[in-house]
Amino acid sequence: MTETAYRTEKDSLGELQVPAEAWYGIQTQRAIGNFPISGRAPDKDFVIAHVRIKRAAAVANRQPGWLAPELADAIVAACDRILAGEFLDQFVVDRFQAGAGTSHNMNSNEVIANLANVFLGGEKGVYRPVHPNDHVNMGQSTNDTIPTAIRLAALAKLPRLCDAVDAMATACQHIAERERDTVKSGRTHLQDAVPTTIGREFGAYAWTLRRCVQHLQDCRVPLCEIGLGGSAAGTGLNTAPDYAARAAAELARLTGEAIRPAADLAAQMQSMHDIQRLSSAIRDLALELIRIANDLRLLASGPRTGIGEILLPPVQPGSSIMPGKVNPVMFEMLNQVCFQVLGQDAAIAAMTQAGQLELNVMMPALGSALFDAMDWLTNAVRAATQRNLEGLRVDRERCRWFLHQSVGLATLLNTHIGYAAAAEIAKESQRTGKPVREIVAERGLMNGEEFDTLVLRAARDGRLD
Question: Structure pTM?
Answer without folding.
Answer: 0.93
